[in-house]
Inverse folding.
């Protein structure tokens, strides 16, 4: 089994409760689109594209392959498989979002990601080329059906629906205590944030310095917008409470089940082939929620049944 | 009923106390609606005109503050329902439609867009005793208040005295089951930490717990007793929050271009063309807006019926109550009422369009009463949810009568609402264990 380990910061610009899911700018929750920024769109972005709204002093977005192994045996750096996969970009295609609609589709913290269409791609000859791509379907026998259609189907009872939706939901029962892992050492280690309160305090001081510098500049409409945006960020950044979310994570674990006709695997680049008749197990967590950056950290592993061409790849 | 406490006859009987609590419930409920209406009227984007990004940042703070106050008014209404249940009364979610008057029929309660005048009136609703320190404050001029009116705090002080008097007179004032009451720690899912979203409700079962409830309501409204108002805008009580908004708004209105609110009409109402119009109301004539306002009111009525069942639960199981809560609080309040309220303040009030917009009027066509038989209540409510989804579909089909720009702004929300209502109807069916007809 080829295990691809990935990690990195993602951005998701979304309103938080008690705001409605489609609140465009954030009012009553703890996330806000500040002056001059576009409205929220809830899309989970794993790569630093123009659509990422980068705020000053915040982490750089980018989820990449950090390492690989085959059946637990590390693949050496000089191996072509390592060369092509490690550092490759991990993406969620088709505008993936956390979907809950304030308890209509799922309870808070139990939101599945939908659509879930994973792609790993690498820049080759100045162009990104998909190496691995596979989509998870709510119903593998019907690739068109969406979660609304499943939930609307009155012939399905509560248990049926919970089984279908629950497969892709974060692990744990319906209470925050069961779903959220707080003070997670894995989050601290992956992000390097060992002192969460200090991390935010440092951000606050950086923002305050930036504000002073901006205020010293001559008045201009653009400057005024930047100042207003910074003032809101400073006002909303309260290290004493925001730090709690930084060390929190939720865990996902399911088998990506998309059929072969929606699966892509570049045999040439991978120097091998895989079975797409069987699902690919994926296990990851999302957490380290930085409410000022509107970013979080994602870390996990996707496992692909793999048969290398020619001699064994493991050194 | 609304005028009963204006004259100080004191509370001598259980009936007097229930009547006073009815008035308190109507006041809290009405205030919640007034505050939401004003918050919904605020512009959100410089493209709406006469607001800048810089001003919008401040306006968001005001909106957030008003929403918080509205949530607490809703919690106060819940608290009053607990007080009523505790002494053998029934939870009371009825109230007169707008426009109406309270405080002895002296003080008008109108649905009005956010403005200095509106905020000045909000301060008057929430202010401490009428003879308090700020008698000559400028907001009184803006609010155009009647010369003397009782305050909410005074009403609650009378209610507290009533509890104290009746506890001395009666051995058994607290005859209602506290198991039928609601407290915030029972709320479903993840918002069950006391103080989450600044909402706290506890059960009432004796004089101390009644006093605690009343103290909390008064202090969240007018603030703790003090010699002079706090100058801290971060103070959490309603009176202080509105005072701060008033001062900030007055300051920002020095920019003559600044217009924070959409051109929302007062007291919008949907009535047949030949029906008489209540004084102070505005007849909405645009067909798509009328349909959306009807949709809002149908949703509001369903939410009220759910809340009545929650606050009056009799033979519901714990899981029934939890299922009702999972629908009534989130998502009905956040995913149905608020989006529709915000959409309505962008929709034209009249046909032909004069530039004025409508707003939600929280109107109930019939008396809101407890649906007494559980199983029939579930069937009836499920049907109402299905009708709501169908009505939303009807509204979406009328959107093409609106300008393209407006369609672009509101269509995504209404289409999402349609999808959500379809699921919500089935969620209700499943969670309340309704059976398919054979």
């Amino acid at each position: 089994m080829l295990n691809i380990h990935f990690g990195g910061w993602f951005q998701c610009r979304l309103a938080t409760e008690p705001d409605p899911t489609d609140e465009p700018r954030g009012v009553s929750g703890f996330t806000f689109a500040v002056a001059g920024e576009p409205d929220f769109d809830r899309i989970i972005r794993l790569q630093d594209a123009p659509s990422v709204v980068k705020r000053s002093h915040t982490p750089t977005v980018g989820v990449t392959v950090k390492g690989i192994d085959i059946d637990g045996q590390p693949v050496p750096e000089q191996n072509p498989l390592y060369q092509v996969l490690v550092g490759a970009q991990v993406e969620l295609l088709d505008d993936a979002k956390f979907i809950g609609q304030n308890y209509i589709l799922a309870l808070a913290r139990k939101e599945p990601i939908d659509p879930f269409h994973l792609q790993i791609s690498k820049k080759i000859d100045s162009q990104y080329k998909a190496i691995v791509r596979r989509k998870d379907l709510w119903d593998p026998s019907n690739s068109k059906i969406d979660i609304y259609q499943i939930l609307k189907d009155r012939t399905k009872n509560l248990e049926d629906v919970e089984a279908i939706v629950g497969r892709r939901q974060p692990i744990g029962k319906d209470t925050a205590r069961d779903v959220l892992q707080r003070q997670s050492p894995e989050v601290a280690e992956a992000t390097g944030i060992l002192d969460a309160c200090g991390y935010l305090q440092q951000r606050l001081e950086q923002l305050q310095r930036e504000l002073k510098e901006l205020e010293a500049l001559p008045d201009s409409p653009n400057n005024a917008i930047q100042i207003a945006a910074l003032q809101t960020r400073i006002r909303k950044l309260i290290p004493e409470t925001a730090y709690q979310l930084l060390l929190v994570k939720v865990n996902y674990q399911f088998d990506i089940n998309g059929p072969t006709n929606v699966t892509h695997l570049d045999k040439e680049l991978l120097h091998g082939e895989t079975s797409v008749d069987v699902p690919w197990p994926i296990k990851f967590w999302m957490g380290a929620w930085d409410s000022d950056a509107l970013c979080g950290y994602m870390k996990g592993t996707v496992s692909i049944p793999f048969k290398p061409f020619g001699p064994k790849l493991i050194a | 009923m609304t005028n009963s406490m204006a004259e100080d006859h004191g509370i001598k009987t259980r009936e007097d106390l229930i009547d006073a609590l009815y008035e308190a419930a109507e006041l809290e409920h009405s205030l919640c609606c007034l505050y939401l209406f004003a918050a919904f009227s605020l512009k959100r984007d410089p493209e709406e005109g006469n607001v800048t990004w810089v001003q919008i940042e401040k306006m968001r703070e005001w909106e957030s503050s008003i929403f918080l106050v509205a949530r607490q008014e809703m919690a106060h209404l819940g608290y009053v329902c607990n007080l009523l249940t505790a002494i053998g009364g029934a939870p009371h979610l009825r109230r007169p439609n707008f426009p109406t008057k309270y405080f002895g029929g002296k003080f008008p309660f109108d649905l009005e867009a956010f403005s200095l005048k509106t905020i000045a009136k909000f301060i008057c609703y929430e202010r401490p005793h009428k003879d308090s320190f700020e008698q000559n404050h400028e907001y009184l001029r803006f609010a155009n208040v009647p010369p003397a009116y009782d305050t909410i705090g005074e009403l609650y002080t009378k209610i507290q005295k009533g509890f104290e008097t009746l506890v001395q007179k009666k051995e058994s004032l607290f005859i209602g089951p506290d198991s039928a009451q609601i407290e915030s720690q029972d709320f479903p899912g993840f918002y069950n930490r006391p103080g989450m979203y600044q909402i706290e409700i506890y059960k009432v079962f004796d004089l101390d717990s009644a006093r605690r409830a009343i103290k909390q309501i008064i202090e969240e409204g007018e603030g703790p007793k003090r010699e002079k108002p706090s100058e801290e805008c971060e103070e959490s009580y309603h009176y202080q929050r509105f005072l701060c908004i008033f001062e900030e708004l007055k300051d920002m209105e020095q920019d003559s271009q600044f217009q924070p609110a959409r051109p929302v009409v007062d007291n919008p109402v949907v009535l047949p063309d030949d029906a008489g119009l209540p004084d102070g109301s505005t007849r909405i004539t645009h067909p798509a807006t009328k349909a959306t306002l009807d949709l809002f009111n149908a949703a509001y009525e369903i939410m009220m019926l759910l809340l009545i069942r929650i606050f009056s639960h009799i033979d519901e199981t714990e899981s029934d109550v939890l299922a009702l809560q999972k629908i009534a609080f989130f998502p009905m309040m956040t995913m149905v009422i608020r989006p529709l309220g915000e959409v309505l303040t962008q929709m034209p009030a009249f046909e032909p369009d004069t530039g004025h917009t409508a707003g939600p009027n929280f109107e109930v066509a019939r008396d809101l009463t407890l649906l007494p038989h559980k199983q029939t209540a579930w069937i009836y409510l499920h049907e109402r949810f299905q009708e709501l989804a169908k009505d939303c579909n009807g509204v979406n089909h009328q959107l093409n009568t609106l300008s393209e720009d407006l369609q672009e702004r509101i269509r995504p929300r209404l289409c999402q609402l349609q999808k959500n209502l379809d699921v919500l109807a089935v969620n209700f069916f499943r969670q309340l264990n309704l059976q398919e007809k054979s």
User: Anything to note?
Assistant: The interface with chain A takes residues 44, 52-54, 56-57, 60, 63-64, 67-68, 71, 189-191, 197, 326-327, 330-331, 334-335, 338-339, 412-413, 416, 419-420, 422-424, 426-427, 429-431, 436 of chain B (CB under 8 Å). The CA atoms of residues 136 and 344 of chain B lie 37 Å apart. The beta strands of chain B are 100-102, 107-109, 268-269, 282-283.
